[in-house]
Design a protein that fits this description.
The chain is about 30% helix and about 15% strand. By secondary structure, the chain is α+β, with helices and mostly antiparallel strands. It has a domain of about 80 residues: 2-Layer Sandwich (Translation Initiation Factor IF3). It has a 4-stranded mixed beta sheet, covered by helices on one side. It starts with a helix and ends in an 11-residue tail after the last helix. The mean pLDDT is about 75.
Length: about 140
């Protein structure tokens, strides 16, 4: 220990640091039965995300669609062949389900909607926003 360290410690300005040594656990091999150690967690997941595409014809299909959202699957709905009253009821029901699951929903076209669980974020391409607001013709135009 240096003289200055002793001096500062004598004045009470610097305290001695206690060094604590931790022993590493001994390596244990997996049991001979072939079972892996229960404390091992895989960081890599090959879990595939599923997207459900549906053209509902009746309101009775809405519970199955809500169950897909609860199972963290995206649901894309095409209402081209669905009556407007039934389509509105399905949209209302799935909007409530999506809201309760902290998910997201968006209309993709005149009759196409997407509902996603909280683990999926819907982002809009900047070109789509420009076209939607009619800025495409003046974008990058005369300077």
């Amino acid at each position: 220990m240096a003289i200055t360290d002793k001096f500062w410690r004598w004045l009470g300005v610097e305290e001695e640091l206690k060094e604590e040594k931790l022993a590493l656990p001994e390596s244990t091999s997996a049991p001979e039965t072939g079972k892996a150690n229960k404390n091992v967690v895989s960081l890599h997941s090959n879990k595939t995300l599923k997207v459900v595409v549906c053209e509902p014809e009746s309101f009775e299909e809405v519970q199955v669609l809500a169950d897909h959202l609860k199972s963290r699957r995206q649901v894309i709905l095409n209402f081209e062949n669905t009556s407007p009253e039934v389509a509105q009821r399905i949209i209302d029901f799935l909007s409530g389900t999506t809201y309760s699951l902290d998910g997201h929903s968006q209309q993709l076209g005149p009759h196409i909607f997407i509902f996603t669980p909280s683990n999926v974020e819907i982002s809009t391409d900047h070109r789509t926003i420009i076209r939607k607001h009619g800025l495409g013709s003046s974008w990058g135009g005369n300077k």
